[in-house]
Amino acid sequence: EALGATADVRIVPVAADKAEALIAKYPYYAVDTIPAGTYGLESEVPTVSVLAMLATTTDLPEEVAYGITKAIYANTDKISHAKGSLIKAETALNGVGIEVHPGAQKFFDEQ
């Protein structure tokens, strides 16, 4: 939104078929919507967004990775980001194209 305060910003909608083609090729993208009122928009605009993930080294002990993962999913109600309500264990691994840490995988296997 800071950019919109200093420059003229035009948000270009992403057509549904283009979004689906992108997601088919790169599954870490997701269909999303920019809400009305954001960037001064009068109406919502369809777009794509990138799924987020945390990364670590293989040196992180399994019990630590497990504990971090468990803490995140036990406290999703406290995440204040606008997309916080979308953080769910059952969809967390969607589009992940790299190996999941054994500690995190242990948590997801328990779900």
From TrEMBL:
InterPro entries according to UniProt: TRAP_TAXI
Pfam family, one: NMT1_3
Protein name: TAXI family TRAP transporter solute-binding subunit
